[in-house]
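Most newcomers find our protein records easier to grasp once they have seen one. There is nothing in a record beyond a sequence line and a structure line. Getting from the letters to the tokens is the skill we practise here. An example says more than a description, so a record of this kind follows:
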Amino acid sequence: MDVFDEARDRSAWSAAVLLCLISGGIGIVSVDAFRAQWSAGPTAALQLAGMAEAGVLLASLGLGAVTHAIARTLGGNGRFAPTASLFVVIFWVTDLPRLIIAAWLPASSTFVQAATWTTWGFGYFLAVLLIRGQHHLPTHRSAAAVSVQMLAALALLKLGPVR
């Protein structure tokens, strides 16, 4: 049990940043607008990709920070660095299968939508377990702490714009 307590107190910033950059890169390359921009001029496309990567990284860290803040508000006692960094790792690890599928299939296809909902549900489950363990909260409070961010992530990053 001491191993789990020790692991709970360690942050995973390098893994979080690396997964953000990989996932953001896969997501950017799979967008038709990026491909069209690349055809017009690779320099501008790479600049746009860099800005998008920075945005994905900042948004991911923001989601982790908000998760930590809500958990603390609900009575949790976890530390910031492990909570935020592990939340980002869980979020992107569970989203990688969807990103890889969406790189080859259109985002509106049924298979991509099913993968979106499946990976989102699995990520939500793991995030609830993370907050429950990190902040020593009951499951229903952990679910409440994670809900806002996961719904925002679902709407903004996974489902994409409404057409």
User: Anything to note?
Assistant: The radius of gyration is 17 Å. Residues 42-73 form the longest helix (32 residues). The chain has a mean pLDDT of 83.
